[in-house]
Amino acid sequence: MFITPGLWAGEIWPIGNWNMLDDFTDSPEAIIQISQNKTGGFEGKIIEVFSDPEDDPVDVCKPCTGLDKNKSIIGLVVFKKLKMNSKKELEGKVLDPDSGKIYKCQLKSLPDNRIELHVVVNRIISQDRYLSRAK
Fold first, then answer.
1. What is the pTM of this model?
2. Predicted local distance difference test score (pLDDT) of residue 1
């Protein structure tokens, strides 16, 4: 029987709860729960938000369109249609609840239980965000 070290430790990439980290402070902004869906792909939904006390709390996704319009932020699926590629990275779409826009994205496993989220805004602009395994 062959078991990879990650599976032996009970941490199956990418399933689990992940902290979406602030770009500047590296502190958690939200917890995203990544799970496998019925089609064999993956999706990630917001299960907790850590709001800045100076910001107005946001309860629903007002700028979103379609089925996500005015949907509660808690439970909102932000990683959509994720599929594993040959390099064991996830490719799919990410919803930005602040703008309501959906972008192409790639999630890559990093050492120390971290994920690099590469967001493609357009052909010229992209952004990297990071997630860490939530405890």
1. 0.86
2. 36
15-133 maps to CATH 2.60.120.260? no
Structure tokens at 127: 């952004």
The three-point CA angle 86-32-15 to 5° equals: 40
Contact 58, 37 (CB under 8 A): no
Task: Name the residue with tokens 């050492």.
Answer: 111
Buried b (16+ CB within 10 A) or exposed e, 12-49: ebbeebbbbbeeeeeebbbbbbbeeeeeebbbbbbeeb
How far, in Å, are 16, 36, 65, 92, 104 from residue 127 at the CA level? Answer: 23, 25, 22, 15, 11
Burial (CB < 10 A; 0-12, 13-18, 19+), residue 115, is: buried
Which tokens in the block code for residue 5?
């070290």
Amino acid present at 83: K
Q: Which residues of the chain have pLDDT under 70?
A: 1-11
Longest dimension (CA), the chain: 53
**pLDDT value of residue 11:** 56
pLDDT attached to residue 54:
73
What residue spans define the domains of the chain? 15-133
